[in-house]
Specification:
single chain, alpha+beta, 6 helices
Length: 306
């Protein structure tokens, strides 16, 4: 990526800002960090398709001494991840106006724009996770609170962990490695909760009965920590709206290698505006996402009890 020398740092995004801005696009909020990018290849444009190839499970049979046997032919199956989303930002800065703003105004605006791109990515990934859950892992709708008739968020997370147990989802794996904005790396079980549910976990009276302060401490604004039966708990404002109504939110749980994400920032550059002392700054982001292991993803719907 290059920028015209005639644009310069006064009129556009300086060259040295480009890697930092691109890094901010790659830094996940929550949901993008709960996907695998192992299938990601070279993406040239929206409309590309990434193929995910898997094999059938090996059959275990009785061994009888002295009786010949042959090997099993494994069946290859392919899922496709369409690169169907293309998002962009574009804004114009005028040289006559730039003396009235901070020197790094353009870079700040580009940074804000890339953050909005990330939020859009996160909400789309969350929706794909919701849509891709196995039907048996959709656990219902609950009003959570501390009253005698309210559902308990700890028990619901325990039910989620049990649902993953029943589908042989790996229980052991890597701990999240926190990026600047709370994104994890590696394979592990997780649950993403809206803020009101996370507040019940971190300050509720039931907290003391679920282990030491070490496994319940808050690691950041988004990563709450391991709390219930090996689930890594995350907080997000991007939890999908529930099917029951606008006040409801879906808690998404599963395995961090069950949903694939493939994406690239295709372009980010400056262009002069013809006939004006102004510069157009734009970026184009293309990607696709899909749950490829439905049995290892689940959800339940919650609302804060009155």
């Amino acid at each position: 990526m290059t920028y015209s020398d005639s644009v310069g740092s006064a009129a556009g995004i300086p060259t040295y800002w480009a890697p930092d801005i691109m890094a901010m696009v790659r830094t996940p909020l929550v949901f993008q960090g709960l996907t695998t990018r192992e299938y990601e290849g070279e993406i040239r444009s929206a409309g590309d398709v990434v193929k995910v190839v898997s094999t059938s499970h090996v059959t275990v049979e009785n061994y009888v001494r002295g009786i010949p046997f042959t090997g099993e032919n494994l069946v290859l199956a392919a899922q496709e991840i369409p690169i169907e989303y293309q998002k962009r930002f574009a804004f114009i800065t005028n040289k006559l106006d730039q003396r009235q703003v901070l020197p790094d105004y353009v870079a700040q605006q580009a940074s804000d724009a890339t953050y909005e791109l990330k939020k859009t990515r996160d909400s789309i990934i969350a929706a794909a996770m919701k849509a891709g859950c196995a039907a048996d892992n959709v656990l219902g709708t609950y009003a959570i609170g501390l009253g005698p008739n309210d559902a308990d968020i700890y028990e619901l997370l325990g039910d989620a962990a049990t649902a993953l147990d029943e589908t042989d989802t790996p229980a052991a794996g890597n701990m999240p490695s926190m990026e600047v904005e709370g994104g994890p790396q590696g394979g592990f079980r997780f649950a993403v909760l809206p803020p009101f549910a996370c507040q019940m976990i971190t300050s509720g009276p039931a907290r003391s009965s679920f282990g030491t302060t070490e496994n319940l401490k808050t690691y950041g604004d988004r990563y709450i920590g391991r709390t219930v039966q090996g689930l890594e708990i995350f907080k997000s404002n991007q939890c999908p709206v529930g099917d029951t109504g606008a006040a409801y939110r879906d808690v998404i749980f599963g395995w961090s290698r069950a949903t694939a994400f493939c994406g690239q920032m295709l372009d980010m550059e400056d262009q002069f505006v013809p006939g004006e002392p102004a510069t157009l700054h734009f970026g184009i982001d293309v990607y696709g996402t899909k749950t490829v292991r439905a049995s290892q993803m689940g959800r339940f719907e919650i609302v804060k009890a009155a």
